[in-house]
Design a protein that fits this description.
mainly alpha, about 0% strand, about 250 residues, two-stranded antiparallel ribbon, 10 helices
Length: about 250
C-alpha cells in the first residue's frame, strides 16, 4: 500500500540501530555528554542555585532532554544519509526504487526520531532518579516529539547537501553546538545580553526549551509551538525536495 512506502526505509534504519544497541559502548556514548553536563552543572550547582522557583537540577533536566533529542535525531540522519550517498552508495538504490521522495523522507525522519527519543529516555530515567521535583506532562511529550521531527528533518537536509563526511561536523559546529549552549538549555535566554537575545530567539531549540518547561500551554507557549511547527514543516519540505531532485 502506498501510504506504507516509508516502512522499508524505516525498517532498514531500525535494523542498523538494533545492531548498535547490542554494543555496550554505544549505550555509554549516547549518555556520556548529557550525563557529564548533568553531574557538572546539575549536581554541582543544583543545591545552591534556583531557577523559576525550583532547584537548578529540575530546571536543567528538560533542557538536557531537548538537547539530547536534537543532537541524536539530527546526527543519526545527517551521518547516515551522508555515508549512504557518498561511501556505501546505498542511497542511490533507494531513490531508484518505486518509492516516493516523501516516503523516503518520512522513513529517515521517523528513524531519527526513534534514536532521539531513545537518548532522551536515558536522560529522563536519570532525571526521575536524581531530581525529586521533576515530572513530565502531555505538553512535554508533544514538544519532545516535535523537536525530534524538526531536527531529524534538518538532518536530512544536511545529509543531502554535504559533499564529504567531514562537512557534517562543520554544520554541527556552526548550528548544533551553539544551540546546545545558547538556546536556554543551561540558563534562561532572558539573561543574555539584548543584542544576542534577538538572535537566540530565532533558533529552533530556544522555542523547544521554552515549551518543554511549561506545565500548560499559554500565550508564550502558543508562539513557541507555532515556531517549532513552522520550522518542522519547512525542514520537511526542503528535505523532500532535495531527495526528489537528487541526481548523483
Amino acid at each position: 500500500m502506498r501510504f506504507m512506502e516509508w516502512y522499508p526505509v524505516f525498517l532498514r534504519e531500525m535494523l542498523l540501530f538494533k545492531r548498535k544497541l547490542l554494543k555496550l559502548g554505544y549505550l555509554f556514548s549516547a549518555m556520556m555528554v548529557p550525563i557529564i553536563y548533568l553531574v557538572t552543572f546539575g549536581l554541582g550547582l543544583g543545591r545552591n542555585v534556583r531557577m523559576g522557583g525550583a532547584d537548578y537540577l529540575t530546571y536543567l533536566i528538560p533542557g538536557l532532554v531537548a538537547m539530547s533529542s536534537m543532537t541524536n535525531s539530527y546526527t543519526w540522519v545527517a551521518s547516515t544519509l551522508n555515508l549512504d550517498r557518498l561511501y556505501f552508495k546505498t542511497f542511490q538504490i533507494t531513490v531508484q526504487s518505486p518509492i516516493r521522495s516523501s516516503a523516503i523522507m518520512i522513513g529517515h525522519v521517523l528513524a531519527g526520531m526513534v534514536k532521539g527519543l531513545f537518548a532522551s529516555g536515558l536522560i529522563l530515567l536519570v532525571g526521575f532518579i536524581a531530581a525529586k521535583g521533576f515530572h513530565i506532562t502531555a505538553l512535554f511529550i508533544v514538544t519532545l516529539l516535535l523537536n525530534g521531527f524538526m531536527f531529524a528533518s534538518m538532518g536530512v537536509i544536511v545529509g543531502m547537501v554535504t559533499k564529504s563526511h567531514e562537512d557534517t561536523s562543520t554544520y554541527n559546529n556552526f548550528f548544533i553546538m551553539p544551540m546546545s549552549f545558547f538556546s536556554g538549555t543551561f540558563f534562561p535566554v532572558d539573561r543574555m545580553p539584548g543584542f544576542l537575545k534577538a538572535l537566540i530567539s530565532v533558533l529552533p531549540l530556544t522555542h523547544t526549551n521554552i515549551l518543554i518547561r511549561k506545565s500548560a500551554l499559554d500565550a508564550g507557549g502558543v508562539v513557541s509551538l507555532a515556531v517549532i511547527i513552522t520550522y518542522a514543516v519547512i525542514f520537511f519540505i526542503c528535505g523532500s525536495r532535495l531527495i526528489k531532485r537528487y541526481s548523483e
